[in-house]
Amino acid sequence: MRALILALALLAAGKIWFQDSIYRAATEEALVAAYRTRAADACAKSASVMPPGPNQEKAVDWSAEAEPHVVVGNPAVPVRVWQLEHEQWNARFRQPYLILSVERASLSCAYDLLSQTAEITRS
Q: Do residues 63 and 39 touch, judged by C-beta distance below 8 A?
């Protein structure tokens, strides 16, 4: 009887994990499809005011070269998890960002989906 209950618990946990991973993948795909062109335009504008890097021979095409992925929270914002009253706590831990990464130029652009701003960092 214990083996049956353990097997049912494992099946339930596997079902929840599977549904969650499918939901997250579909949500990321939808957000990338909806915001990729806006993010590429904002990143191109931010890159135009940035001085070129040492190994950056030409301008980066953010719409074609960049590999997108969605993250929640911007780890570059200097806020700790216990600083709940900090004005940038939502930007650090709650707001969605579309990250466009270009490995050739060692650049990544974090596009804030709510405020529609972009910030480029060198890696």
A: no
CB 70 within 8 A of CB 99: yes
Task: Say what the pLDDT of residue 63 is.
Answer: 81
Full-model pTM: 0.79
Q: Say how many Å lie between the first and final Cα of the chain, rounded.
A: 54
Coil/strand/helix, residue 22: helix
Phi/psi of residue 42, nearest 5 degrees? -65, -35
pLDDT tens for each residue of 17-58: 999 999 999 999 999 999 999 999 998 888 777 666 555 546
Pick from 50, 53, 67: nearest CA to 101: 67
Strands 117-122 and 67-72: unpaired
**DSSP of 106-123:** TEEEEEETTTTEEEEEE-
